[in-house]
Amino acid sequence: MPICWCLSLHFRQWRFISLNSLSSQSNLAKPYFFSTFPSSPPSDQTPTTQSLVSTAVSILTHHRSKSRWSYLRSLCPNGFEPNEFSKITIDLKNNPHLALRFFLWTQQKSLCNHNVSSYSTIIHVLARGRLKSHAQDIIRTAIRASKLEGCDGEDQSASKPLKVFETLVKTYKDCGSAPFVFDLLIKACLGSKKVDPSIEIVRMLQSRGISPKVSTLNSLICGVCRCHGVDAGYAIYRELFGLDTEFETSVRRVVRVRPNVHTFNALMLCFHGDGSVDKVEEIWNEMAKLDCARNSYSYTVLMAAYCEEGRMGQAEKLWQEMKSKGMEPGLVTYNTIIGGFCKTGEIRRAEEFFRDMSLGGTDSTSATYEHLIEGHCNVGDVDSALLVYKDMCRRALRPETSTLDMIIGILCDKGRIHDALEFMRSARSDFGISPKGKSYTALIKGLCNEGKMEEALKLQAEMVGKGFEPNSEIYGAFIGGYVRQGNEEVAGALRKEMLESQMQEKES
Hints:
Keywords: Repeat. By secondary structure, the protein is an all-alpha fold. The chain has a domain at 1-11 and 52-177. Helix content is 70%, strand content 0%. It has 28 helices and no strands. The chain has helices at residues 3-13, 32-35, 47-62, 65-75, 82-91, 96-108, 116-128, 132-145, 156-171, 180-191, 195-207, 214-228, 230-240, 245-250, 261-273, 277-289, 296-308, 312-324, 331-343, 347-359, 366-378, 382-394, 401-413, 417-431, 437-449, 453-465, 472-484, 488-507. Mean pLDDT is 86; it is low at 1-38, 41-46, 148-154 and 246-250.
C-alpha cells in the first residue's frame, strides 16, 4: 500500500482541534491534535531493558564527563538497540546537549544501528531544545537511511521524507516535542531539493489545522519557483495561504496564517527574474489588498522592474514615495536607480543619485562604478568613463572583465588603439585580468588598419595563448593589412589558411 495512502488512513483516525488554543509564546505546548496521534507501539520492556535504560541515564547524568563514556561502554559493550537508545534519549529530553553527545557517541563508536524511529527521537529532543542545525543534520541522515517496504513502483526519493514525517508524528507525544520540528523537516527537504514531498507534508499538516511558520512556507514557495517555475510558485502561494475559494471548500482548515512582506518580496523577485513586470505589479497591489506594509526591498524590486524596461519616471516616483514614508534607500536601491538612468543614457541624473549616495554615507561598490562607466560609454564619453574607472581603482575596487571590454571597445571605435593597449596592460598589471576575445579582435583590427602588422601578430599570439582562436574578422584584418602594404603573397597564404579553417569547422 503506498505510504501516502497509509498516512492518510492514519490521519483519518486522529482527532484534532485548532492550534489557536496554543499559546503563541510557548513553543513547547502540545496541541491536542498531537496528543491523539498513535504513538509508536511500545516495545517489550523486560526488567533487563528497564534496568539498562535507568542505569544508562544515571551514568550519563551523574558521572563526570570524562568517565561517563568509558563506564557506559564497559556496561554495554555490545551497544544499544534502537528502542533502548530512544528510551534513554527521551529521559534526557530536558538536557538536549547531553542527548546530542550521547547520539554522536553511539554513532562514532557504532554502538547503535539507528533506524528511523531512533533518529526521530533525537530529532524531537533537539528540536524542542532549539538545536536547529544539529536537528536538520540528523533529519537529512534519517531521510537517507529510511528504508520503505511495500513501495514497489513508487518514487523512493519522494517517499523517504514522508516516512520520516510519519515516524515523527508517531513519536511526537512521547518526546514532548513542538510543531517546530516539522518546520525543520520541511526545510531539510527543501535543502535537498525534495520539493514535492515538502508540499505533501505541508498539505497534510494544514489539512489537520497545523501550519508551519510563515518563513517555512516562504522557503517552500521559493523552492517551487526554482524547480517548477514561478507560475507554479504563485499557485502554491495561493493554496498555502488559503486565497483560493475552490481550495478552501475542498480542504478543511482550522489554522490560517497570513503572508508577510517577505512572502510578497520573494514572489516579486521571482516574477522580476522571469521578466514579467505585470505580475510584479500584481503582487505589489495584492500587498495593499491584504494590508501588508511594504518595506524598502519591496520598493527596490518594483523599481528594478521599471528600470529594466526604461520606465524611469515610474521608478523615480517610487523612489520619492519610499522616502516620503521614512524609508532610507540602501546600497541595492541606489545601484538600481543609478543603473536604470545609465541604461537610458541619462548620465547626469545617474551622477546626481551617485552624489546623493556619497553624501548620505552609503559606500559605493564595483557595481555602482560599472553602471556609471557603462552610462558614459553609452553616450560616447570615453574620457569620463576613464575618469570613473580611475576613481574606482583608487578605491581598490576590482572591475569586471565586461567593464574592460566596454572601455577597450569604445577606445578602438574612436581610433585610440594605443590608449586601448595601454589600458589593457594597466588592467592586467593592477588586477591580473585580461579582456575577452572580442577586445583582442578590436585591438588587432585597429593595429592592422594602422599598418602595425608585427604588433598585431604579437597580440594575436597572446590571444591564442589565452585560449581564443582566430576568427574570420581577425583573418580579414590581417589580409586587409597585408594587401595595403602590397604583400599579396602573405595575404594569399592567409586566405588559403582561413578557407581551410572554415572547412574544418564545417566538417566537425
